[in-house]
Amino acid sequence: MGNPKRTIVINIGGREYLLASSVDEDYAFDIARYVDAKFREISSQNTGIPPAKLAILTALNIADELFQERKKLELASFEDTEKLKKLHQKLSQALTEQ
Fold this sequence. Notes:
This protein is α+β, with helices and mostly antiparallel strands. It has one domain (6-97). Helix content is 69%, strand content 14%. It has helices at residues 25-45, 51-97; strands spanning 6-12, 15-21. Strands 1-2 form a two-stranded antiparallel sheet. Helix 1 packs across helix 2. It is elongated, with a radius of gyration of 23 Å.
């Protein structure tokens, strides 16, 4: 059985939001702090932009990070698979030579 839903208050961009979630409270706060830091970073580079547009820019930047990390994982997985195939070939060859 999962954690029961509870409401916590998070702060992003100087505004408070109520978040109803069943995830661990510390985890939710970590996520909120990360989003807030990204929001403030984007905000400091783009003065005069309305908060709603800053939120979209923040979401796009975080999505970009996610996609880049996924690509890295896919590449690492592919490289690991190739290494395992080569190792398997070497082991098979060594066993047949015996």
